[in-house]
Amino acid sequence: MASEVGYYEVAYGPEPGDCAQTFETIDTSATINSLNTGDTYYFTVRVTDSGGLTSEYATEVSTTIN
Fold first, then answer.
1. I need a surface site. Which of 13, 35, 48, 55 has the fewest CB within 10 A?
2. How far is CA 16 from the centre of its chain?
3. Phi/psi zone of residue 3: left (φ > 0), alpha (ψ -120 to 50 degrees), beta?
4. Inter-residue contact 11 to 22 (CB < 8 Å)
5. Residues of 6-22 as b/e, b for ≥16 C-beta within 10 angstroms?
6. How far is CA 29 from CA 5, 8, 9, 51, in A?
7. How far apart are CA 43 and CA 9, in angstroms?
8. pLDDT attached to residue 2
9. Cα(8)–Cα(4) distance, integer angstroms
10. Which residue from 59, 11, 43, 7 is spatially nearest to 28, judged by alpha carbons?
11. Which residue ranges make up each domain of the chain?
């Protein structure tokens, strides 16, 4: 029996492999207002289902804030 998504955990940080800032959301999009223009940030996400099972983190991606 398939479980439904409980929430997503988004992790991010200023260095690859150092995504120490995290927050949880039930939405598939999110806005982070505290990022500095011109800086590069790294992001990853994992999901926890309604049964409490948590996935591995997804492949990390990066972007430079405009």
1. 55
2. 13
3. beta
4. yes
5. ebbbbbbbeeeeebeee
6. 14, 10, 11, 22
7. 11
8. 64
9. 12
10. 7
11. 5-59
How many angstroms separate the CA atoms of 4 and 7, rounded?
A: 9
Rounded distance, CA 66 to CA 51, Å?
39
User: What pLDDT digit, counting tens, does each position of 7-32 carry?
Assistant: 999 999 999 999 999 999 999 999 99
Q: For tokens 């439904």, what's the residue?
A: 4
The Cα–Cα gap between 49 and 33 comes to 27
Rounded Cα distance between 63 and 25, Å, is 20
